[in-house]
Amino acid sequence: MSKAKAVTSVLDSLYKAYHKDAGKMLIHTGTIGWVLSSAAQIAGIMMNDKIPKEQKMFLIPQEFMDACVNILSFYFVTRSFTSVANKLTKTGRWIPSNVKNHLIKNGFKDRIGKFDFNIFKDVKLTGSPKRSFELFYNGLGVVATTIGSVISCNFITPVLRNLYASHRQKTTLASINNPNPSLQNPQTPRDKARAAIHHTYMQAFMNRGNLKI
Amino acid sequence: MSSLGIKPVSNFARRSAKWVFNKLPSWELKNGKVLNGIKWAGQHISSPQNRLILGVTALMSQPFIDLHNRHVDDETKKVSAARTVAKIIAGTTTGFFVRYYSIKAVEAFTKKPDKAVKTLESLLFPKGIAHTTIKGMQQYKLALGTFLSLGVMLFTNFAIDAPLTKVLTNLFVKKVHEHERNKMMNNPVLLPNSSDSKTPDATNDIHRPKMDIFLNHNRKEAK
C-alpha cells in the first residue's frame, strides 16, 4: 500500500469511527492523552542523565503506577458514564417526546425502553425524528462523557493518588525514624543488596521534596 | 466456550446489566430548555471546551482535596495544593489553546475536493468516503484536530507546561508564606516568646513548627 493510500485509509477510518459519536471521540482522545503524557513523564526520567541508574529503577515503576491509576480511572469511569447514557438513549428509555410519538405511531409502543430494543437498528427513522434523535444521542453522549471525566479526573484520581502518595511518605518517614539495623550495617550479600535499594529509595524520596501530585 | 466458563460469566454480566437497567427511571423529554441544552452540548462541546470544563472544575475541587488530606502535615498540604493549582492553570491554558488551534489548522486542510479548491486545502479530506455530511465532517474535523493536538502536546508538555507549573508553584508557595507571615505579625499570640500571651509556653509549643517552617523558608530565600 502506498503512503498516500495508507493516509487516506487512516482518515477514512477516523471519519467512520467519529462522525456520529462525539462522546466516543472524547473518551478515546482523553485516554490517549493520558497515555502520552505518562509516557512523556517516563521518557523524561529515562533520558535524564542527572538521575542515577539506581534511582531510575525506583522512579520509573513509580511513574508507571501513577500512570496506571490515571489511565484506568479515566477510561473505566468515563466509559461507564457514556455507555449507560448511550444504552438509555438507544433503547428509548430516555427519549425526546417527538421521537417517542413517532415510534408509537409505527407500532413500537411495547418495545420502547426495553433492554433489547435498539432504535438505530430496529427502526428506520427518517426526516425530523431522525435528526432530532441523532442530535439527542450525540448530545447526551457528550454530557455523560464530560460528567464522567470530571468525576474521574477531579475526584477519584486525586483521592487515590493522595492515598498512595501519603502511604509512601509514611513508610519512608517510619523507615527514617526506625532504621533497620541490617540495612545500616549489612553483613550478608542479601542485606547488602537490600541496603543499596533502600539507599536509592531514600535518596529519591529526599529529592522529591513534597508529595507527588 | 462454555467449558472455559466464559459464557456463564457473559450471561451473568448481561443479566446484571439488565437488572440495573430496569431499575433506572424512564425520561421523556418534551421540547424545552433541557432538550435543547443537550442537543447544543453535542454540537458545541468538543475537546477544547471539555478541557476547559475539566480545568475549571479541577480548580474548584482538587486544591480542597489536597488541603483536607488527613494523612499529611500542614506544610505538605499547602505546598501540594499550591502545586495542584499551578498544574491546573498551566495544563488547562496550554491544553485549551493547543486543541483549539489544532482544530482550526485541520479545518484549513479539510475542504471538499473541487476544481476551485487547491490540492493542499483538501489534503486531509476523507476521500474514500462516498457521502460525507456537514455534521459528520464537523465531528471528523474535531476528532482529527484533537488527535493532532495530542502530538503537539507531547512537546508543549515539556516546553510550556513544566516550566510554567514551576514558576506558578513558586509564586503561590511564596504568597502562602507571605500570608502566614503577615498573619503571625498581626496576631502577637502566634509569635514565639510573646509577652502578651497568657500561656506563652503552650502557645509557643503549638506554633513552633509553623514558625520553624516560616523561618527555614526565609533562610532558604536569603541564601
In short, what is this structure?
Chain A is mainly alpha-helical. Chain A is built from eight helices and one strand; from the N terminus they run H-H-H-E-H-H-H-H-H. In chain A, helix 2 packs antiparallel against helix 3, helix 2 (22-47) runs parallel beside helix 6 and helix 3 (53-90) crosses helix 8.
| Shape annotation of chain A | elongated
Q: Most extensive interface: pair and counts?
A: A-B, 64 and 63 residues
Mean pLDDT of chain B: 80
Tally of separate helices of chain B: 6
Which bin fits the share of residues in helices of chain A? over 70%
Detail the poorly predicted runs of chain A: 206-213
Total strands of chain B: the figure is 1
Report the structural category of chain A: mainly alpha
Instruction: Catalogue the unreliable spans of chain B.
Output: 195-215
- Average pLDDT of chain A works out at 81
Total strands of chain A: the figure is: 1
Oligomeric state, counting identical vs distinct chains: heterodimer
What is the overall number of helices of chain A?
8
Radius of gyration of chain A: 26 Å
How far apart, in Å, are the first and last alpha carbons of chain A?
Answer: 46 Å
Q: Approximately what portion of the residues of chain B adopt beta-strand conformation?
A: under 5%
Largest sheet of chain B: none
Written description of the protein model:
The complex is a heterodimer of chains A (213) and B (223). By secondary structure, chain A is mainly alpha-helical. Chain A has 8 helices and 1 strand. Chain B has a domain at 43-188. Chain B has helices at 6-23, 33-44, 47-67, 74-108, 134-186, 200-222, and one strand at residues 27-29. At the A-B interface, α1, α2, α3, β1 and α4 of A face α1, β1, α2, α3 and α4 of B. β1 of chain A pairs parallel with β1 of chain B, so a sheet runs across the interface.
